[in-house]
Automatic annotation (TrEMBL), chain A:
Assigned protein family: Belongs to the TtcA family. CTU1/NCS6/ATPBD3 subfamily.
A GO cellular-component term linked to this record: mitochondrion
Name listed for the protein in its UniProt record: Cytoplasmic tRNA 2-thiolation protein 1
Domain Cytoplasmic tRNA 2-thiolation protein 1 C-terminal: 281-311
Location relative to the cell: Cytoplasm
GO biological process: protein urmylation; tRNA wobble position uridine thiolation
Automatic annotation (TrEMBL), chain B:
Entry's family note: Belongs to the URM1 family.
UniProt keyword annotation of Cytoplasm present: yes
Gene Ontology, cellular component aspect: cytosol
Name the record gives this protein: Ubiquitin-related modifier 1
Gene name for this UniProt entry: URM1
UniProt main location, coarse: cytoplasm
UniProtKB/TrEMBL annotation, chain C:
Protein name from the UniProt record: Cytoplasmic tRNA 2-thiolation protein 2
Subcellular location: Cytoplasm
Chief place of localization: cytoplasm
PANTHER family in UniProt: CYTOPLASMIC TRNA 2-THIOLATION PROTEIN 2
Pathway: tRNA modification; 5-methoxycarbonylmethyl-2-thiouridine-tRNA biosynthesis
GO aspect biological process, one term: tRNA wobble position uridine thiolation
Pfam families: CTU2
Length: 375, 101, 421
């Protein structure tokens, strides 16, 4: 005989909440989870009536639960939002195509409009092709940088006022740990806040599920019978995030509140005011926010286009400066930037930033030239 | 063939707790076909000296992170770590820098 | 055969992340990176191999530089050293002795020691505790500084004022460190010739005073009634810790009580500065531990060089730039006596508490990425003690237990909320 639900006192409990330790029946858990998300939205003033919100939909559990909840709560509490699904197609065969199918099924059930932007469309490179050039490491760097911009571009195209992402409490906690371990002060300063302000991209972002434990999201999806896609990306997970993730799991086992506590810490960290922070400007080439003359995505793309895929990865500042000045690189330097040994002799050196690819801000929809022929 | 050799093995910083609280051990390593190095000394210690919770001292084939090793009062990092070939009358010290020993 | 062994050393199976320097054989090939002459005895960071003499100089200099850089201790100021008997605080005592040498102008003549004993809650038997205290006292007496022994049992007798922030009362010349130093040197010159010097006389007086004082607790309890009281207190303490369910919460409770005890000792004995011996390694662990406990807002206070949350008594952490390895080597090479006392989590399971999980993680990652500890430590350096949204003028509402500014709007700070389960 299982315990009785501690909320209604009548039904048998279906689960013990990882966050609070309470035993709840299915109905009470669903109600509590929905109400908590609503409270988080209200308390954080995440949305304003009449706003168009693009939900970053990957087809995975978090964004599926988020889309479901936002639609439900919008109806229940009359937020007055226009909700859209926005997906990014990184071009990863066997992974993204399958998860996009899950997004499409959700679109049909929910009736929400869906828009898909692809890396191939935006950058001229699919992840599969990048991975072939880059080898097994650093793929997640490219993918992460590109996805961030892709969501912004997609949201702008759709006329969205805000992007809502499915980041949960575990994601936030991992990020806090990772930024601390890496000493990434810039990211620590931006914090793990949920609020609409302070996003680094062009469109404000929010994370309505940032207080929800991953376990509860999975349970919610399970009890609601939500259909989602749950396979790991075919490219190796980021090594360093892997450490943070393993650590978080151990911390949670030792003290379940650690997940929420890390999120709280992240919000409350305050950095010394005398630290020099990179000034934020815009990318000379594409107009995206950047602290360097070129944004990270444009440097990464430049590296890919030049056959030097590691140009934007790690500490190659000197080599980047050399390119910036139009100086030729030696064979050894090219090798360090990931140039393949059997490659044809280097083409004429053109200063970095003068290839002039992306003239039109945010509106780039055309496939680029002959380099895309491998599809 | 390595002749039997005599070593002074010491444990400190709390590591001695895993060795019945005994800090200094005058040990004699038996003859064996291959020469003695730190790697097989650790195995020998695990079998012959370690009294409890071996994972708090040895992990994999090396010492647990946070345990320092000194060979004749010098950092084992200068001596080739696990590959250091022991010599008769060597002094090997293990110091735990871990809080909970 | 010995010769042969030396020659067959090879590069061996070092992976890329491990110290790449150790390609050559021991002491004969490599030289100390400082003097370029003597054989090195330890590697501090990747590639920095020091000989014994240079290491000692580096170590001692770092302590003096730390005090000088932060201008934390005014000449002639009374300083209380918190000693656990562990490696870092014992090493700190040795450093204070080094800088207190009579020929130094900027000295710490008025240092004194408080040694805390927590054996009762860390599973030590009465006999073991007696033995530990005996070892401690030997070290304390040899230091020739006046000392106080503080037993955790005494927390039951602390006044409630320990939970209050005492407004800062500037007594000394706080504005100009330089003036203070010059003033002190002038004063010393005037005193020269008289022997023993004033501070030394004070030390002797203090010592006499201390030896007269009846230390409540374990030793010197001829009086059966006092012994009974001590036993009752110990029993009470064990019950208190027994009522706390998780090891994480026990660790936090112990830290809070220990801080209260040290603060009380400092206040009653008239000290305005307390030195704590936390190393860089320990601070890295503490940073991540406290981050995981939700103390993000108080990290800078909990780990910074100077911690003025109590107002009248400032805690400083002069050992914060030494790694645990440097300290262990220093103590070993220069015969610094330490007393090993078990901690709450000694021999506990690896995953038993947040503290334990983080410690294992940091040491493990450090073995793989040698910059882990220093990166975490340096991230901590960049944090501010004042919360971002605080108005600078208003006196913040403070947590009753840890005295840090409240970071929630529900009345209690994160650490002091009851632990779930």
């Amino acid at each position: 005989m299982p315990a009785t639900c501690s909320a209604c006192g009548t039904s048998p409990a279906a689960l013990r909440r990882p966050k609070t330790g309470h035993a709840l029946c299915r109905a009470c858990f669903l109600a509590a989870f929905e109400e908590e998300t609503h409270q988080a939205i209200v308390a954080g003033r995440l949305f304003r009536p009449g706003e168009t919100v693009a939900i970053g939909a990957s087809g995975g559990k978090d964004s599926t639960v988020l889309a479901h909840l936002l639609q439900l709560l919008d109806q229940r509490h009359g937020y007055g939002l226009r909700l859209l699904l926005l997906s990014v197609d990184e071009g990863i065969a066997g992974y993204r195509d399958a998860s996009l199918a899950a997004v499409r099924r959700h679109q049909h059930r929910s009736g929400l409009p869906l828009h898909v932007v692809s890396y191939r469309q935006l950058y001229g490179w699919s992840m599969d092709r990048i991975a072939r050039h880059l080898g097994p490491r650093n793929n997640c760097t490219f993918c992460g940088v590109f996805r961030r911009q892709a969501l912004d571009r997609g949201a702008l195209l759709m006329g969205a006022d805000k992007i809502a992402t499915g980041h949960n409490a575990d994601d936030v906690a991992e990020t806090v740990l990772m930024n601390f371990l890496r000493g990434d002060v810039g990211r620590l300063r931006r914090g793990a806040g949920a609020g609409p302000a302070g996003g680094e991209g062009a469109v404000p972002r929010c994370k309505p599920l940032r207080h929800a434990y991953e376990k509860e999201i999975v349970l919610y999806a399970y009890f609601q019978g939500l259909d989602y896609f749950s396979t790991e990306c075919v490219y190796a997970p980021q090594a360093y995030r892997g450490y943070a993730r393993a650590l978080l799991k151990e911390l949670e086992a030792a003290r379940p509140s650690a997940v929420a506590d890390l999120g709280h810490s992240g919000e409350r960290l305050s950095l010394r005011s005398d630290l020099r922070m990179p000034a934020r400007g815009t990318c000379q080439r594409c107009g995206y926010v950047a602290s360097q003359p070129l944004c990270k995505a444009c440097v990464l793309l430049e590296g890919l286009d030049r056959g030097l895929p590691k140009l934007g990865i790690g500490k190659h500042r000197r080599l980047r400066d050399k390119l910036q000045d139009g100086q030729p690189l030696t064979q050894e330097e090219r090798r360090r930037l990931g140039a393949l040994a059997e490659e044809e002799p280097p083409e004429e050196q053109v200063p970095l930033g003068e290839l002039g690819r992306d003239e039109e801000l945010w509106g780039k929809q055309e496939l680029r030239g002959p380099r895309d022929l491998d599809f | 063939m390595a002749a039997p050799m005599s070593l002074l093995v010491e444990f400190g910083g709390g590591a001695e707790l895993l060795f019945d609280g005994v800090k200094k051990h005058q040990v004699t390593l038996p003859c064996q076909p291959e020469p003695w190095d730190i790697r097989n000394l650790l195995k020998w210690i695990k079998q012959n000296l370690l009294k409890e919770r071996p994972e708090l001292f040895i992990q994999g084939d090396t010492v647990r992170p946070g345990i320092l090793v000194l060979i004749n009062d010098a950092d084992w990092e200068l001596m080739g770590e696990l590959d250091y070939k022991l010599q008769d009358q060597d002094n090997v010290v293990f110091i735990s820098t871990l809080h909970g020993g | 055969m010995v010769v042969c062994v030396a020659l067959c050393m090879t590069v061996g199976p070092y992976s890329g992340n491990r110290l790449a320097l150790i390609v050559s054989f021991p002491s004969c090939a490599e030289k100390c990176m400082k003097c370029k002459e003597a054989s090195p005895v330890l590697v501090i960071r990747v590639g920095d191999a020091f000989c014994k003499a240079c290491f000692r100089e580096y170590f001692v200099h770092k302590f003096r530089a730390m005090l000088g850089k932060n201008r934390a201790i005014y000449p002639g100021e009374k300083v209380l050293l918190a000693l656990s008997g562990g490696p870092a605080s014992s090493s700190m005592l040795r450093q204070v002795q080094e800088v207190s040498a009579p020929q130094r102008s900027n000295s710490l003549h008025l240092a004194s020691l408080v040694c805390y004993s927590e054996g009762a809650v860390c599973g030590q038997s009465l006999a073991e505790r007696g033995d530990t205290l005996l070892q401690m006292e030997t070290i304390l007496q040899a230091s020739r500084f006046p000392y106080h022994l503080a037993h955790l049992e005494e927390v039951f007798d602390l006044p409630s004022s320990i939970l209050q922030h005492a407004p800062h009362n500037p007594t000394g010349p706080k504005n100009s460190y330089k003036e203070a130093v010059e003033g002190f040197i002038r004063q010393q010159r005037r005193e020269e010739g008289g022997s023993p010097s004033l501070p030394e006389r004070q030390i002797q007086e203090k010592l006499a005073e201390v030896s007269l004082r009846d230390v409540p607790g374990m030793e010197g309890l001829a009086d059966p009634e006092a012994r009974l009281l001590a036993a009752v207190r110990t029993e009470q303490l064990i019950r208190l810790f027994g009522s706390v369910k998780t090891l994480t919460a026990k660790e936090e409770l112990l830290q809070t009580l220990r801080n209260h005890l040290i603060l009380h000792t400092a206040r009653t004995q008239g000290y305005s500065k307390v030195m704590m011996g936390e190393s860089c390694t320990r601070l890295a662990v503490k940073l991540l531990t406290n981050l995981s406990l939700g103390r993000g807002a108080s990290l800078a206070m909990d780990t910074g060089f100077s911690d003025d949350r109590h107002g009248d008594v400032v805690v400083v952490r002069p050992m914060r730039e030494y790694s645990a390895k440097e300290i262990a080597f220093y103590n070993h090479l220069f015969g610094v006596p330490t007393v090993f006392t078990p901690a709450l989590d000694t021999k506990a399971l690896e995953k038993a508490s947040i503290h334990r999980v983080i410690e294992r993680f940091v040491y493990g990652l450090q073995a793989e990425f040698p910059s882990t500890v220093s990166t975490v430590y340096r991230t901590g350096e960049k944090l501010s003690v004042t919360p971002g949204d605080a108005s600078p003028a208003a006196e913040p509402e403070r947590c009753l237990l840890c005295l840090c500014a409240l970071d929630t709007n529900v009345g209690k700070c994160k650490r002091c909320l009851p632990a779930p389960g």
